[in-house]
Amino acid sequence: MVDIREVPEAHIDRALELAYLVFHDRPDEEGRERHHALLSHCARLGAYDGDALVGFMAAHEFRLSVPGADLPCPGLTFVSVAPTHRRRGVLTALMDEQLRRTGAAGAPIAALWASESAIYGRFGYGCATQGATIEIDSTRPLALRIEPDPRPLRLVDPRDALAVIGPYHEAARAGRAGRPTRDAVRWNESWLCEQDEEDEELGPPRIIVIGDPGKPIAGYVLYRTKHEGDGGPARSPGLVRVDELEADTPAVAAALWDCLAGLDLTGKVRAWGRPPDDPLLRFAADRDQVRVTAQFPALWLRLVDVRAALTRRSWAAPVEVVLELADVRLPGNAGRFRLKAGPGGATYEPAAAPADLELEVRDLAACYLGGTRVAELAAAGLVAERTPGAAAALDAALSTPLLPHTADEF
Ligand SMILES: CC(=O)SCCNC(=O)CCNC(=O)[C@H](O)C(C)(C)COP(=O)(O)OP(=O)(O)OC[C@H]1O[C@@H](n2cnc3c(N)ncnc32)[C@H](O)[C@@H]1OP(=O)(O)O
User: Fold this and answer.
1) Going by DSSP bridges, is the β-strand pair 319-326/290-297 parallel, antiparallel, or unpaired?
2) For the chain, does the N or the C end have fewer beta carbons within 10 angstroms?
3) Residue 156 — pLDDT band, cuts 50, 70, 90?
4) Model confidence at 134, in pLDDT bands (50, 70, 90)?
5) Residues spanned by CATH 3.30.1050.10 within the chain?
6) Distance CA 239, CA 81 (A)
7) Superfamily of domain 131-295
8) Nearest C-alpha neighbor of 275 from the set 177, 185, 351, 184
9) Å from CA of 89 to ligand 1 middle
10) Check: complex ipTM more than 0.90
11) CA 156 to ligand 1 center in whole angstroms
12) 320 a known binding residue?
């Protein structure tokens, strides 16, 4: 029987060894130091078999943008169970303790990125945001249907970048749900790190901002480049990998994409984690030149305290529905509740009336940020619609002008 308890600072190296074992990873010294610094800033839970650490889980102390609010939201990461102890309930024990602690700390939601989609639904997590990989064929100029913003572009030294783009990013989080806070450790550990963790051929981070001198910036892009091919021909088809692009307006975004597509000695721009409704996909004049090459599950969300989660977000339209909610891991959330919500706020109270909609907590989580439609889940047989029109009414209330989006893979 394993014992679940906090992992002290002194055991972080052991936790990292376990993580490298299960993720088949072998980072260099610098990578280890970065991971060590990261974990020392996280809450840490371990599963101990006697003295041996056989299971581990860390949690960032994030806040997450949700419609109309910003909620405390632990971000689970480094989930690892030793091969000698797999499929014996170690993860389940860690998750139960994590959910208990999240609730006790007053965080209404929790989030993670899943290594495999099959793992977390059983713990009440639903996939709440999707990422899209967009590729631009930049062997020719980017064809646009709108005029790019003419303001000047400026390169920023990565060492100064946090001061310039950090506040912009923090303000932009409210523009879409699903975006976690990013502290200096997170910025430096991945986004601004000299060496990309996944692809050692990529160069250092490059940051270009746009805006009039002396005025606040109107947007930025963070990207890395690499040579592709054998490097023989004078103009090799190099790759521009875009990690983040934020803009005040479509014209600003157009200027930044245009700049990326125009980088000399490159032939392709690949933005790996864009929102599926990226304006680029609309203002590109030639959709054969700008293509979505992949779509993938991004942020998985858990409604730990359903009442708090529902009453603390904003609502786009009035709705009154009785929900019959199933939650096997947190029975306090289970039962029949009347949700009365609208632009003025929401209440969520136990109800005796028959349910309009019956659903599992993981499916409510998938819909919570407005990225999945309840009607779609009803059509798939996952939500039972007992009152015709109830799913559409709830969707109208949950909807957001822009889709939720999470580029922070943690
Ligand atoms: C947020 C993140 O960090 S995501 C990273 C997750 N970690 C990894 O992928 C690293 C490699 N894998 C591991 O370390 C482990 O296999 C884990 C953490 C995925 C699972 O840990 P375990 O202790 O084996 O899980 P546990 O025994 O509690 O399983 C609970 C249930 O989930 C199922 N399950 C666990 N892992 C998986 C999986 N990868 N795919 C499908 N089902 C799974 C089990 O079969 C079990 O089902 P049951 O209740 O019907 O019997």
Assistant:
1) unpaired
2) N
3) very high
4) very high
5) 306-398
6) 36
7) Gcn5-related N-acetyltransferase (GNAT) (3.40.630.30)
8) 177
9) 8
10) yes
11) 42
12) no
| DSSP string across 79-132 | EEE-GGGTTSSHHHHHHHHHHHHHHHTT-SEEEE--SSTTSSGGGTEEE--EEE
Q: Check the annotation: does 131 bind a ligand.
A: no
Which amino acid makes up residue 24?
H
- Quick: pLDDT tens for 290-315: 999 999 999 999 999 999 999 999 99
What confidence score (pLDDT) does residue 382 get? 98
Nearest CA to ligand 1 atom 51: 87
Q: What is the mean pLDDT of residues 243-270?
A: 97
Q: What b/e readout covers 240-271, taking b as 16+ CB neighbours within 10 angstroms?
A: bbbbbbbbbebbbbbbbbbbbbebeebbbbbb
Ligand 1 atom closest to the Cα of residue 78 is 3
CATH topology for the 3-107 domain: Aminopeptidase (3.40.630)
Domain with CATH 3.40.630.30 in the chain: 3-107, 131-295
**Ligand 1 nearest-atom number relative to CA 93:** 28
CATH number assigned to the domain with residue range 306-398, chosen from the 4 options 3.30.1330.30, 3.40.720.10, 3.30.1050.10, 3.20.20.70:
3.30.1050.10
Mutate to test the pocket of ligand 1, among 86, 96, 97, 112 (most ligand atoms within 8 A of CB): 86
| 230 confidence band (pLDDT: 50, 70, 90) | low
pTM, rounded to two decimals: 0.96
Residue of the CA atom closest to atom 42 of ligand 1: 119
pLDDT of residue 233: 53
Query: Is residue 80 part of an annotated ligand binding site?
Result: yes
Give the number of other CB atoms < 10 A from CB of residue 136: 24
From residue 42, give the alpha-carbon distance in Å to each of 21, 39, 78, 116.
20, 5, 10, 22
Any idea which residues carry the catalytic annotation? 120, 410
Any residues with Cβ below 6 Å from ligand 1, and which?
22-23, 76-81, 86-92, 112-116, 118-119, 122
